[in-house]
Design goal:
Layout lengths: L1 E4 L5 H14 L11 H7 L5 E6 L2 E10 L9 E8 L8 H15 L4 E6 L4 H9 L3 E12 L2 E11 L6
Parallel strand pairs: 4-5
Antiparallel strand pairs: 1-2, 2-3, 3-4, 5-7, 6-7
């Protein structure tokens, strides 16, 4: 498996993996797939990765800025998605580790993740990557007429912003 920079030609595979995550009901509040243009405009350009094996995209990871204010320029939210066929094989951990390295090369000092408490695998991957649970956002959003909680996880860089 290789972790490489995500390119526009990976979008179809990335979109399909994102759709699998949406279908679980425990990966995102997003209920519809964005267009490439929308996705591209909302994710940090210098920190987008895909895991590839035998020319097949197994998963992807990317950052979203948490704010447009300059004081938060080094703070981003993490997204990591793994295809159904590749789950449980270390793809998520590898992607997150590579995304952390990429984020530090690009001067991000804090990474955060909002994860549904039911998504145990994602919580474990993030904790293994140095994230810690800093809080629970109770009833933060409504999904399918049900109010959902998220756990807020954070990782401070030991390299940037110290």
């Amino acid at each position: 498996m290789q972790i490489i920079t995500m390119l526009p030609q990976h979008w179809e595979a990335v979109k399909n993996i994102y759709a699998e995550g949406i279908a679980t009901g425990n990966a995102t509040f997003q209920s519809t797939l964005p267009s490439w243009k929308e996705w591209d405009e909302t994710h940090v350009a210098n920190s987008r990765l895909v895991a590839i094996e035998n020319e097949t995209v197994l998963g992807w990871a990317a950052l979203t800025a948490v704010s447009g204010r300059c004081v938060y320029a080094g703070v981003a939210e993490v997204s990591v998605y793994v295809s159904v066929a590749a789950r449980g094989k270390g793809v998520g951990r590898s992607l997150l580790k590579s995304l952390i390295n990429e984020s530090e090369k690009n001067n991000f000092w804090t990474l955060q993740a909002g994860i549904f408490p039911e998504n145990i695998a994602s919580i474990k991957i993030h904790e293994a990557g140095g994230f810690r649970i800093i809080g629970k956002r109770e009833r933060i959003g409504e999904m399918n007429h049900i109010w959902r909680d998220t756990l807020l996880l954070e990782r401070r860089s030991n390299v940037v912003g110290i």
